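Please decode residue identities from the backbone states below.
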């Protein structure tokens, strides 16, 4: 007879894990969206958000839940930490979890362990008008506990900072402190992998392309970028950061930047999760030729993974189509896309028809992904400029 476990987050990016989990357990699921697609794989659904933590605690106690899962999401980590503590369950990652979801705590640990990071400082939100900034630097402001570039903006001086906080106030309204960091001009990457037994095992490097004019969220991502020098440097840095936060085991999504002038590598974010936007569940499974959900579940239960290896030279290029003004998304003009691109592609629509799109300087305004698959990096490079030129018009949404 199957036992019950709890799963948090039932959205489209989590389904890869929920489906696999449902083959082994009966599931009680929690999500603030009562129409989340993952509900159909759940035995008992509760329409509760992470702020309803005491209601969730009582349900988990009543159901005698002793295992909690979330896939490709940071949002439930603090809640699961709370539940483990209240139910007196073993949690080897308890310190690492809290550090990973707080940008300031993470940077303080980097400083303490003498791991290079961009210049940063914390500021109390109520005292931001008194802040002193170094002249000649460009800065980036971030809320402490959000992801997906929500509320993140670049500024040059105190006046820009104050106006930026006002513009993005919905993300700072409950914040006591903010993170202010030197903006590094460079190439962004992420490395995906698993950490256990004091060792980071990489799956692949992803190269992230941004379009800073409109948003700090990724405009496109090249999955499985082939560069052994960068891979080795990223593995070493990810390993250092995992050790510094006293992590025992977890899937890892680690973001870093290589500065243009100095070629120095800096950590940006560490997530104890798989990458979102279908990356972990769909595309990394193709590269590994293994089900990543099975790996995540095994790691949670056995605290180890065997025989992990990147088995492919394939390049998967994801190009995001974004709304560029307030609008109601009706559909994507696939015919126009085919006329422009003239190479094979797939499309994944992210928003439902008749969804109102509001620009938020984040990944929230993405309406679709165009997916290109190449046999190797050389093939990708041959097509890269043509793809981006064709996509620049951004007139494919109706």
């Amino acid at each position: 007879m199957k036992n019950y476990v709890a799963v948090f987050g039932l959205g489209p990016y989590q389904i890869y894990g929920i489906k696999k989990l449902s083959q082994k357990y009966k599931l009680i699921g929690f999500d603030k969206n009562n129409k989340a697609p993952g509900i159909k794989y759940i035995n008992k659904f509760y329409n509760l958000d992470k702020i309803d933590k005491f209601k969730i605690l009582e349900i988990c106690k009543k159901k005698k839940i002793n295992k909690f899962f979330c896939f490709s999401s940071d949002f439930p980590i603090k809640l699961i930490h709370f539940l483990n503590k209240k139910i007196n369950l073993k949690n080897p990652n308890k310190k690492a979890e809290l550090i990973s979801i707080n940008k300031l705590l993470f940077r303080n640990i980097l400083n303490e362990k003498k791991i290079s990071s961009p210049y940063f400082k914390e500021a109390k939100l109520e005292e931001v008008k008194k802040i002193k900034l170094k002249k000649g630097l460009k800065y980036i402001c971030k809320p402490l506990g959000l992801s997906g570039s929500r509320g993140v903006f670049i500024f040059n001086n105190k006046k820009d900072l104050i106006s930026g906080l006002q513009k993005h106030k919905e993300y700072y309204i409950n914040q006591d402190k903010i993170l202010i960091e030197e903006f590094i001009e460079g190439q962004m990457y992420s490395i995906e992998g698993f950490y256990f037994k004091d060792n980071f095992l990489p799956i692949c490097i992803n190269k992230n392309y941004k379009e800073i004019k409109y948003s700090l969220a990724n405009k496109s991502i090249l999955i499985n970028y082939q560069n052994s020098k960068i891979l080795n440097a990223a593995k070493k840095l990810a390993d250092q950061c995992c050790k510094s936060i006293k992590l025992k085991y977890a899937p890892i999504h680690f973001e870093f930047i290589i500065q243009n002038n100095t070629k120095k590598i800096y950590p940006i974010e560490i997530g104890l999760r798989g990458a979102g936007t279908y990356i972990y569940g769909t595309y990394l499974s193709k590269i590994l030729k293994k089900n990543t959900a099975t790996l995540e579940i095994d790691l949670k239960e056995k605290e180890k993974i065997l025989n992990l290896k990147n088995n492919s030279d394939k390049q998967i290029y994801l190009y995001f189509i974004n709304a560029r003004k307030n609008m109601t998304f009706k559909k994507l003009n696939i015919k126009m896309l085919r006329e422009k691109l003239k190479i094979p592609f797939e499309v994944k629509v992210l928003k439902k028809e008749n969804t109102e799109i509001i620009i938020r300087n984040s990944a929230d305004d993405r309406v679709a992904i165009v997916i290109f698959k190449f046999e190797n990096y050389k093939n990708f490079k041959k097509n890269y400029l043509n793809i981006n030129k064709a996509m620049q018009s951004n007139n494919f949404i109706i």
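Observation: The chain has a mean pLDDT of 91.
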